[in-house]
Amino acid sequence: MSDPTDENVAIIGNPVLLQRGEPLIQALRSVRVAGVLASTVAIGSGSWSASIPVPDECALLYVIARGRCVGGTFDPATMVDLSAGDILLFPHPGRYILSERRGIAPVPLEDMLEEVLGGIEGVEGRWKSLFSSPFTIAGAEAGDPVVAITALRLFFDHGLPAVLLRGLPPFVHLPGFATRHGPFVEAILRQVIGQGEEGLSGQGAATRLAEALLVKCLSAFLADFADKRPGFGRGLRDPFIAKAIGAIQSRPNLNWTLAAMSRSAGLSRSAFTDRFRAAMEMTPTEFLTAVRMARATDMLENGKMSIAQIAEMIGYGSEAAFNRAFRRWNGSPPGALRRSSLTAGGQKPDD
Q1: What pLDDT is recorded for position 128?
Q2: Residues 198, 290 within the same domain
Q3: Residue 159: what pLDDT?
Q4: Where is the HTH araC/xylS-type domain (predicted)?
Q5: How far apart are CA 271 and CA 259, in angstroms?
Q6: What mean pLDDT is predicted for residues 189-212?
Q7: Given a cut of 90, is residue 232 above it in pLDDT?
């Protein structure tokens, strides 16, 4: 018989301790948004179609607040019908379309923005205007908009959250998500825009709020749709691969050789490697590196540990080995990330 005292202690303890065996929760905790731009778009009754660029290390999230439109890739067959309450996420670099209907030649979004922002001086001034002033097209100035959309442009640190995004389709359509989670979505968007109106000083809070919405959307997609295609969701639904994922995420500091990862899954090395690659679209070693670097990035940005301590915490035998691995993954050494994080937080880096 369990001790009720122990159960009560667990109830008021750190919830993270109860989630260590849940690979999806661990992966969602690794999502880090580094910056966000937001704008509201009011669209009138005229004809319209936008060609939308998504750069590297970026995702776009559209919340349809009113009306109907279509969106997707340049292949009309892949486009989906969107209506009020839907969310559309573009998680990969490329160009996509948001349009009144299929078959309309799109106008580059950059040209549309230049018409609206061209007279505003300075980068921060344009940022503030994006957050605070509705972006109107297709005659919306003449009356109530036919379509209303809130757009979030989310920027990531290098490689994050690659494990989750890598297996996603070209776009993720979540029908009715903003309706089912109305109070949550409305509060997040209102606060993101409010913080963004403060300019650069509001980015810290705005990014964390946008991050919460992205995590909620990813969680919903992975729970309901991701088993239909390769990627993190399918890996979680393979009981053997899920064991390895959970073990690696719980203890990334261990000496995770391919043999050790295979044993944690209960498979031979060849069977594990083939099964992991088929489910996750990456090798076990690539996944291990992604988990370790996500953990390291979080500690570099938010912790007080030395780089040598971080190296030990995530499984590197020396600070030099960690420095080399981090530079290969990020393009710059861990010390540079720590210094930039301290500077952004108003602290003076130690020399």
Answers
A1: 74
A2: no
A3: 56
A4: 242-340
A5: 11
A6: 91
A7: no
Q: Which residue has the higher pLDDT, 231 or 277?
A: 277
Higher local confidence (pLDDT), 145 or 318: 318
Question: What does the alpha-carbon distance between residue 69 and residue 93 come to, in Å, rounded to a whole number?
Answer: 22
Assess whether 179 and 247 both reside in one domain. no
C-alpha closest to that of 147 among 242, 82, 220, 57 = 82
- 278 and 221 within one domain: no
Residues 157 and 265 in one domain: no
Secondary structure letter of residue 37 according to DSSP: E
pLDDT over threshold 80, residue 216: yes
340 and 216 within one domain = no
**pTM of the predicted protein model:** 0.73
d(C-alpha 164, C-alpha 237), whole Å: 14
Q: How far apart are the first and last CA of the chain?
A: 56
6 is a domain residue? no
pLDDT at 351: 42
**Residue 140's domain is classified under what CATH number?**
2.60.120.280
What value, to the nearest 5°, has the Cα angle with vertex 155 and ends 72 and 251? Answer: 105
Residues 78 and 202 in one domain: yes
The domain tally of the chain equals 2
Average pLDDT of the chain is: 83
What is the phi/psi pair of residue 295, to 5°? -65, -45
What 8-state DSSP symbol labels residue 101?
Answer: S
What one-character-per-residue DSSP string does 121-190 give? -SHHHHHHHHHHS-EEETTGGGSS-SEEEEEEEEEE-TTTTHHHHTTS-S-EEETTHHHHTHHHHHHHHH
- In DSSP notation, 249-303 reads HH-TTS---HHHHHHHHTS-HHHHHHHHHHHHSS-HHHHHHHHHHHHHHHHHHH-
